[in-house]
């Protein structure tokens, strides 16, 4: 008996040639817009003009670059955890809402996509400056007697990145919650489980694919984030993307910048493979073992 294949609307199975023809433009776009430029850039890191690994040795020999890498991972992890904590209640509310309420919540989540990251980051810079709204509010309620240094700090970077990346956490969790049959919650209630226990033992495990998917998406995106750390962070607390830009634009050291890109790409690939192996996404999403 043949396994499941790719079917047309009338139920007939498409040939492998037709599938390749349909997927061809996508693979061509990935090659032209991503694989070829990345491969060309990585080749610069080992050819100057003879083959060498000196640029990669610089990455690990100098403790400054290791510190930047560790800081990047710490900030990305903080942003991912904070996004998850803030996004889970919003996603649950979206999944349980209907009518105008659901439309309003969805609009609030999708509204940030209508403006650029640069605009949202600039808005945070205005809010967090010494004479901004946040400092004004803290002084008005008596928590501080003078303006605090909120801008150009790691906290400002974490808060702004969380705001920018939260939709990428909310939407996967919302999709997973919407796919849970309502009968499961009713069955748990019939068995005597309260709302909290039902959420913890029924809803949360079934929503885990969306939670893990959103967490990985936010974490990997935060690793290579550039605009927000550049505008809101300080030079003493730069992230890896800012360091790469500095090596390219200010130092004109393209081979070393390419080596940094290579290290970051390798780390992201390893993390993705580990997550895929540990959490077994094919089973979680209903695939075959």
UniProtKB/TrEMBL annotation:
GO cellular component, one term: plasma membrane
BP-aspect Gene Ontology terms: transmembrane transport
Keyword RNA-binding among record annotations: no
CDD domains reported for this sequence: TM_PBP2
Stretches assigned to the ABC transmembrane type-1 domain: 69-275
Record field: transmembrane: 20-39, 75-95, 102-127, 155-177, 206-227, 254-275
UniProt subcellular location: Cell membrane
Recorded superkingdom: Bacteria
Its membrane topology: Multi-pass membrane protein
PROSITE patterns membership: ABC_TM1
Pfam families: BPD_transp_1
Record keywords: Cell membrane, Membrane, Transmembrane, Transmembrane helix, Transport
Similarity comment text for this entry: Belongs to the binding-protein-dependent transport system permease family. CysTW subfamily.
Protein's name in the database: ABC transporter permease
Organism the protein comes from: Tianweitania sediminis
């Amino acid at each position: 008996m043949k396994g499941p294949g790719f079917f047309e609307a009338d139920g007939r199975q498409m040939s492998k040639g037709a599938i390749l023809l349909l997927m061809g433009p996508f693979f061509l776009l990935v090659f032209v817009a991503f694989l070829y430029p990345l491969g060309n850039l990585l080749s610069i890191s080992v050819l100057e003009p003879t083959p060498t690994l000196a640029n990669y040795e610089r990455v690990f020999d100098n403790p400054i670059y290791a510190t930047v890498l560790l800081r990047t991972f710490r900030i990305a992890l903080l942003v991912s955890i904070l996004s998850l904590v803030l996004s889970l209640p919003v996603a649950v509310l979206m999944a349980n809402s209907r009518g105008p309420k659901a439309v309003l919540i969805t609009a609030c989540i999708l509204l940030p996509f209508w403006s650029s990251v640069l605009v949202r980051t600039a808005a945070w810079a205005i809010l967090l400056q010494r004479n901004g709204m946040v400092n004004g509010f803290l002084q008005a309620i008596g928590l501080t007697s003078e303006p605090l240094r909120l801008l150009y700090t790691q906290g400002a970077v974490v808060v702004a990145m969380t705001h920018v990346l939260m939709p990428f956490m909310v939407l996967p969790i919302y999709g997973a919650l919407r796919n849970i049959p309502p009968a499961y919650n009713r069955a748990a209630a019939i068995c005597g489980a309260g709302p909290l226990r039902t959420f913890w033992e029924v809803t949360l495990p079934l929503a885990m694919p969306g939670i893990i998917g959103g967490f990985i998406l936010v974490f990997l995106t935060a690793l290579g984030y550039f605009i927000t750390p550049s505008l809101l962070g300080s030079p003493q607390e730069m992230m890896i993307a800012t360091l790469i830009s500095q090596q390219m634009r200010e130092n004109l050291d393209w081979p070393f910048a390419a080596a940094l890109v290579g290290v970051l790409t390798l780390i992201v690939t390893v993390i993705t493979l580990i997550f895929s192996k540990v959490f077994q996404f094919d089973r979680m999403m209903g695939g075959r073992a």
